[in-house]
Structures are given as structure tokens and as C-alpha cells.
């Protein structure tokens, strides 16, 4: 049985749409999780970070207005950053593509090719 792919997707984001298209062009129909509507729990986000081999700050969208207004130049623990991202999912970098016990951030979208 082939491993399933998941994409944490924002359909309004061009990079997310491009990444999804690359998956489909390569015969992959991933489970699509619109993370702004179906936000991962703190436990799920920790699992995602483990698969990505990244820390919470590594997937933080620092260009978002909410980050600039509320969190810029502030210091938090990894657990606190995870809670902040769960409360403000717009701060989670997108798209995130997972396959089995590994994953990549689709920035640039071609990063997803590493999972094939």
C-alpha cells in the first residue's frame, strides 16, 4: 500500500496551490487539510514539526501582520510558539506536505519533489 500524502493547504495561497498541482502532476492525490479551517492541535503540530525536523520558529510566518503587531522581537519557548500558532494558524508556514514519517515545506513548491 503506497504511503499517503497530506498537505496543510491554504487555497488562497499561490505557493500552496502550486505545490498541490505538482503533487497531482506526479500522480499523488493528497489528503487536503485546510489548516485555517481545520487547525491542528498542539499535539498534531508537534508531530508535524518532528516529521519536518524543524522547530516552531522555523515554520513561523513572520511577515504576517499579527506577528508584526503582537509577537515580533518577543521570546517564547517552543511550547509557547506552538500554542500561539494553534491560536493564530495564519502564522503557520504553508504549505506543509507530509508523507509517512517525513515532510517538507512547499516553499519553493518544487521542495515537494524530495518526497517522491
TrEMBL record:
Organism taxonomic ancestry: Bacteria, Pseudomonadati, Bacteroidota, Flavobacteriia, Flavobacteriales
Protein name per the record: Arsenate reductase (Glutaredoxin)
Record PROSITE patterns: ARSC (PS51353)
SUPFAM superfamilies according to UniProt: Thioredoxin-like
UniProt similarity note: Belongs to the ArsC family.
Key words, A-Z: Oxidoreductase
InterPro entries: Arsenate_reductase, Arsenate_reductase-like, Thioredoxin-like_sf
Entry superkingdom: Bacteria
EC number: 1.20.4.1
UniProt enzyme class: oxidoreductase
Species annotation: Cryomorpha ignava
GO MF annotation terms: arsenate reductase (glutaredoxin) activity
